[in-house]
Amino acid sequence: MHFIVNYDLFYEILFVDKQNISMYRYNMKKDVRKYLGLKVRAMREAANMTQEELATICDVSWRTISNLERGTVVPDLLMIYRIAQNFDVKIDELLDHQIINQKSLSRIEKENIIIEKIKRIDDNILDYIDEQLCLLLKHFNH
User: Fold this and answer.
1) pLDDT confidence of residue 29
2) What is the pLDDT of residues 75-109, one digit of tens each?
3) How far is CA 138 from CA 33, 109, 111, 124, 134, in A?
4) Cα 3 from Cα 77, distance rounded (Å)
5) CATH number for the domain formed by residue range(s) 2-140
6) Cα–Cα distance between 140 and 142 in angstroms, integer?
7) Backbone CA torsion sign across 87, 92, 98, 104
8) Mean per-residue pLDDT of the chain
9) pTM for the whole structure
10) What span, in angstroms and rounded, lies between the C-alpha atoms of 56 and 45?
């Protein structure tokens, strides 16, 4: 009897843990899709490119690009390669997934858009922005 109770308890713990792991993996995949979509959208918009233009480059429909940007599809490796090549980024940079759980997706989207804008400005403007940002952080970060 003692063995059966322990076995049932052990099985229950394993079952619950497997569910938690499964849910964690599902959420992680969902976060990766959302992150990739937001990153692609930010790069596309920073390049003043339409979804149709990116779709032509990737040899897919504009709906696929739309779904990618909304995080509802996972692109294949060839599509990821074409996107990275078009925006002159490394694949690992495109797929870099360092989402901190406390950040909202809207925050990540804003950060990606700002980063893509910064990549495209000249050095003089970048120096000016850096100075202004330092002043802002000095006065508003406590």
Assistant:
1) 66
2) 889 999 999 999 998 888 887 755 445 677 788 78
3) 35, 25, 20, 21, 6
4) 50
5) 1.10.260.40
6) 6
7) positive
8) 78
9) 0.56
10) 16
Q: What residue type is 81 in one-letter code?
A: Y
117: nearest Cα among 49, 46, 48: 46
Alpha helices (H) in 1-142, listed in sequence order: 2-46, 51-58, 62-70, 77-86, 91-94, 105-119, 123-140
Task: Give dist(CA 79, CA 87) in Å, integer.
Answer: 12
Quote the distance between the C-alpha of residue 42 and its chain's center: 10
- The structure tokens listed for 23 are 């849910």
- For tokens 């925006």, what's the residue? 87
